[in-house]
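Is this the right way to post structure tokens for a design question? Let me know if I should format differently. Anyway, here goes:
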């Protein structure tokens, strides 16, 4: 039997602005990029709210007008509710920023087919099942930064064909599967700053022709391909600071220099 999701205190359903993913890379100068600002009729949890168990549903009347959920900065939320679509089927924004979330799975986002923005940064998520995002076909912004992720399943992003921004900075990822990003043909911004990735080659970004901003700083890159950015006609910025073989960031005017330094210092594949 499913438990009901019940708060100790009153829940506001109000018009609220969702700021989804205010920080992409963690660097202060990039704070203004890729904010998803929407004035939404929002299910807004109070600070004394709590969820300590899995399989908990929202105890609230169904509303077609609610377009967002806010659980931000609530440390007593360890799990997200399931079957949210039964109550709020038209959600476009979901933010559970800086809680204590330990895991996410398919049932947390099931049938949320209108969702465009998901922000679950600053939590305690260590792994994500491959089917977690399979219904989120309209998702444009996904923020997974500052969790405890060690691996990325190569199929996890396949349904996200409309994704524009992907952020998983400051996790513990060592290996990015070569095909993990292959379905993200609309991707414009990606950050895995602050992980432990050691190498990237031409296959990692082979289908990401629309990338504009790439943050790869504070990893352990010793091997990079000097040609892996060549097909990105719209590329504006690449951050390679604080790596083993590179320690600089480049705007488009510096890309020729970047390519030569990768050839020289990163044992290009």
């Amino acid at each position: 039997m499913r438990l009901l999701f019940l708060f100790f205190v009153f829940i506001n359903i109000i018009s609220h602005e969702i700021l989804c993913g205010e920080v992409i890379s963690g660097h202060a100068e990039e704070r203004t990029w890729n904010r998803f600002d929407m004035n939404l009729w929002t299910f807004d949890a109070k600070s004394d709210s709590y969820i300590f168990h899995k399989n908990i549903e929202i105890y609230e009347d169904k509303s077609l007008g609610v377009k967002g959920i806010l659980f931000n900065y609530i440390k007593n939320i360890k799990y997200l509710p399931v079957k949210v679509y039964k109550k709020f089927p038209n959600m476009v924004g979901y933010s559970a920023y800086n809680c204590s979330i330990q895991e996410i799975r398919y049932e947390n986002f099931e049938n949320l087919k209108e969702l465009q923005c998901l922000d679950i940064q600053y939590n305690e998520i260590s792994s994500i099942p491959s089917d977690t995002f399979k219904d989120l076909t309209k998702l444009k912004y996904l923020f997974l930064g500052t969790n405890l992720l060690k691996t990325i399943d190569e199929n996890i992003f396949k349904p996200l064909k409309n994704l524009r921004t992907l952020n998983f900075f400051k996790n513990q990822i060592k290996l990015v599967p070569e095909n993990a990003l292959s379905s993200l043909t609309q991707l414009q911004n990606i950050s895995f700053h602050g992980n432990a990735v050691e190498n990237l080659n031409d296959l990692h970004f082979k289908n990401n022709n629309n990338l504009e901003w790439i943050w790869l700083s504070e990893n352990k890159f010793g091997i990079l391909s000097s040609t892996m950015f060549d097909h990105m006609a719209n590329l504006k910025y690449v951050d390679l600071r604080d790596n083993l073989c590179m320690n600089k960031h480049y705007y488009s005017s510096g890309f020729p220099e970047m390519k030569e330094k990768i050839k020289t210092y990163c044992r290009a594949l």
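Format looks fine. Someone answered above. Worth noting: Confidence is low (pLDDT under 50) at residues 1-16, 21-36. The chain is about 5% helix and 20% strand.
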